[in-house]
UniProtKB/TrEMBL annotation:
Coiled-coil segments on the chain, per record: none
InterPro entries linked to this entry: TmcA_C_sf, TmcA_tRNA_bind
Protein name: Putative ATP-dependent acetyltransferase
Key words, A-Z: Acyltransferase, Transferase
EC number(s) stated in the UniProt entry for this protein: 2.3.1.193
Species annotation: Escherichia coli
Gene assigned in the entry: tmcA_3
Any Pfam family matching the protein: tRNA_bind_3
Domain called tRNA(Met) cytidine acetyltransferase TmcA tRNA-binding: residue spans: 24-141
GO molecular function, one term: acyltransferase activity
Taxonomic superkingdom: Bacteria
Length: 158
């Protein structure tokens, strides 16, 4: 499910999966579960209710940890990580002003840059990645270090 309206149609992008094998069926089930976990976050962000039964699960899953590490230590986009970032913010007691400001308080990027004395959107994104890493390390430093090393190796070899 996309998080921005398309300019030409005003619609959000979505991808449908038609499983043609057992592996495809497992993928479709996993992604449907993920969509249900992220449904409330996406609906709040997009202002559109999704035609799925949302799950109220605030516990960080293994998939969440991998997505969060991808955001913190690689180049995964902020809004692609929306659901797991909001679950992280529910779990963490840290201030995390750049993340909370954007995702929970819906403060504009420009206002956050001014408030946090950052030189622009790129620096704001750097700060949001740093805050995500900080929150992950606070929750489980060993797991976070392992994920960071794994992602660094992926980036090196690809």
């Amino acid at each position: 499910m996309g998080n921005h309206r398309e300019a030409s149609s005003g619609c959000y992008t979505a991808m449908a999966l038609l499983p043609m094998s057992n592996a495809g069926k497992q993928l479709a089930e996993r992604e449907h579960y993920r969509l249900r976990r992220d449904a409330q976050a996406l609906a709040k962000w997009n202002g559109e209710t999704l035609p799925v039964d949302p799950l109220n699960d605030a516990v960080l899953s293994d998939d969440d940890w991998l997505e969060l590490a991808g955001f913190a230590f690689a180049h995964r986009p902020l809004l692609t990580s929306l659901g797991c970032l909001l679950r992280l913010l529910q779990t963490s007691e840290l201030a995390l002003p750049a993340l909370r400001g954007r995702l929970q308080k819906n403060v504009s990027d420009a206002q956050l840059c001014t408030t946090l004395k950052l030189s622009g959107r790129k620096m704001l994104l750097v700060r949001q990645r740093e805050e995500t890493a900080q929150a992950l390390f606070a929750l489980n430093d060993v797991r976070t270090e392992r994920l960071r090393d794994r992602i660094t190796q992926w980036q090196f070899f690809h």
